[in-house]
Structure formats: C-alpha cells, structure tokens
Amino acid sequence: MSFKGSVIWITGASSGIGAALARALAADGPKLVLSGRQVDALRRVAQQTGLPGEDVMILPFDITDADARAATVDQMQTRFGRIDLLVNNAGISQRARVLDTEMDTLRTLMEVDFFAQVALTRAVLPLMLAQGGGHVAVTASVSGKLGSQGRAGYCAAKHALMGWFDALRAEHARDRIRVTTIVPGYIDTPIAYAALTGDGSAHAKPSKGNARGMDVDACAQRIAQGLRRRRREIAVGKGLEMHALWLKRWFPGLLFRLVERLPG
Ligand SMILES: NC(=O)c1ccc[n+]([C@@H]2O[C@H](COP(=O)([O-])OP(=O)(O)OC[C@H]3O[C@@H](n4cnc5c(N)ncnc54)[C@H](OP(=O)(O)O)[C@@H]3O)[C@@H](O)[C@H]2O)c1
Q1: 12: CA distance to ligand 1 center in Å?
Q2: Residue 223 has what pLDDT?
Q3: How far is Cα 93 from Cα 80, in angstroms, rounded to an integer?
Q4: How far is the CA of 150 from the centre of ligand 1 (A)?
C-alpha cells in the first residue's frame, strides 16, 4: 500500500538510514516529519526528498528530552492533525567491552536506544488509537537478536526494543495498530562516529564493518517496501551477519561458538 497523502514521522532522519528512508518514502507523496538534532542536516534531507515545502516539516529535538518530546508531538499534531506512520529510527551504537563500559554510558545507551523510542511511541499511540489505527516501526538491529563483542549495551537495548515492540503489536493488533521491527545488519552509514566508548565519549572513527555493509539507499528501498506491505519484521543487509538470524533459531549452539571466535 502506498503512503500517498499519509503523515510519516521519521526520527534519526538527519543521517544514514533515516535520511535514506525519507528519500525512499518521498516517492509515494506523503507528508513527512523529519527529526534529529542537526537542523542543517535535516534541511538538506528535506530538500533531497523533492517534496513541496508544505509537505515536509523539520522537527528538531533531542529524543532523550521528555519536555521536547511532548512539545514535538503537539507541534506535529497541530501542523498535520494526524499521524499514519511513526518510524523510531534514532539510535546510537557502542564500541567498548563490558568491563570498560561505565554504568553511566550503559544508561545513556538504554536511554537513547530504548527508553526514548518507547516514550515517543507511547506519546503518539493515543493519537493513532483516536484516529482508528496507525503504523509504528522501530529500527532494531541484528544486535537485537544476537549478542556480540564490544556492543553489550547496544545489544541489550536492541533486544529490549524487539521485546517491547513485539508486545505492543500483540496488545494492539485488534486496534488496527500495525507494528514493524526493522532488523538491519551492517549498513554503510556513519553510525560508528557517534558510537559511545566506555567513558561515554564518541568513538569518532569509521568502521570497516559498516563500510563493507549494504548501500544505505538500497537498504532504505527494502525497508520502504516492507513498510508499504505492513510487514511485521524486515530483515535487511547483505553480509554474513544476516545468517545469524536463522542460525540463532535453528542452531544456537553453533552460532554462539562462531561468535565467540570473532575478534574483539
Ligand atoms: N548502520 C548500521 O549498520 C545499523 C545496523 C543496525 C541497526 N542500525 C540502527 O539504525 C538506526 C539509524 O542508524 P544509522 O546507521 O543511520 O546511524 P547514523 O547515520 O549515525 O544516524 C543516527 C541518527 O540518530 C539520531 N540521533 C542519535 N541520537 C539522538 C538523540 N539523542 N536525539 C535525537 N536524534 C538522535 C541522529 O541525529 P542527530 O545527530 O541529528 O541528533 C541521526 O539522525 C539506529 O537506530 C541504529 O542503531 C544501524
């Protein structure tokens, strides 16, 4: 089903997967709400969508700020009056082993990658229920299905997302609330730069894994197609990590042994 005329709100739209998804979904002719903290980057993405100015709203805010979250929901509602699809895509990665990761850093990861996504969804859900239905998506990760080295906090947050959004789907299926969990493998985005090291500072380096990953626009096209089809889960990626999804289900012992041998 096309999103023509639908109101779509994408968080993490200033970069990477969110920006590419904005460009991909723009082909349908929706009304787009783009969020992130970097206003100039959001403006660039708005231009890249090619949509008329009145159909794109830039709504910058820090997703961990509860007051800002509430204000943006109000602003979005005032401008467009409804919301058909919320894509909870903002996120931050990690580059530090368990014992090197301070508890405050772990809490930041959980705040950005889990609690903020849940809070925004809870703020939008009453609007969707009042209008008779809606669609909520969240960008989880293969790291939401499998734990690996140097990412314990990120993996924990992404596993939590998978559980919470699966439960949301089950709870509200009869209210015509559709829920999509997006499960990317390595995608070629700058995600590693903002990834948190143990003390909470930015990793500030590129990642070979991401550089070898799937092209971000190809990834966004796959996600857009899955969203149009109202898929419950969209797995997207091109590397060996995608095999982890079926190995975890059918041969978990083998997968655990393979992951233990990875460097890091
Ligand atoms: N790239 C991959 O290989 C990969 C794989 C699996 C899952 N994912 C997930 O995909 C999503 C997008 O990641 P990406 O690869 O596109 O990375 P990215 O290019 O670094 O984009 C991350 C986005 O999240 C936003 N963001 C981060 N912290 C925020 C905050 N506190 N408040 C508001 N916005 C915030 C950033 O916006 P501002 O900087 O403007 O605030 C940016 O738009 C994330 O949830 C990530 O975990 C990525």
Answers
A1: 5
A2: 99
A3: 32
A4: 18
Instruction: Give me the numbers of helices (H) and strands (E) for the chain, helices first please.
Output: 11, 7
- Ligand 1 atom nearest 154 alpha carbon: 47
Q: Look at residue 219 in the predicted model and tell me its pLDDT.
A: 98
Please tell me the distance between residue 225's alpha carbon and the centre of ligand 1 in angstroms. 20
Structural tokens at position 40: 């100039």
pLDDT, residue 117, reads 98
C-alpha pair distances (Å), 214 with each of 94, 96, 219, 236: 20, 24, 7, 8
Which parts of the chain register pLDDT below 70? none
| Residue 205 amino acid letter | K
157 within 8 A of 111, measured Cβ to Cβ:
no
Token pair for residue 242? 């995608």
Identify which of 225, 86, 110, 228 has the alpha carbon closest to the alpha carbon of residue 161. 110
Pick the CATH number of 7-260 from 2.40.50.140, 3.40.140.10, 3.40.50.720, 3.40.50.300: 3.40.50.720
How many whole angstroms separate alpha carbon 236 and alpha carbon 222?
7
**Count, residues in the chain:** 264
Q: Where do the structural domains in the chain lie, given as residue ranges? A: 7-260
For the chain, the C-alpha Rg in angstroms (whole number) is 18
Q: What pLDDT shows up at residue 263?
A: 85
Residue from 64, 87, 113, 139 to probe ligand 1 pocket by mutation (most atoms less than 8 Å from CB): 139
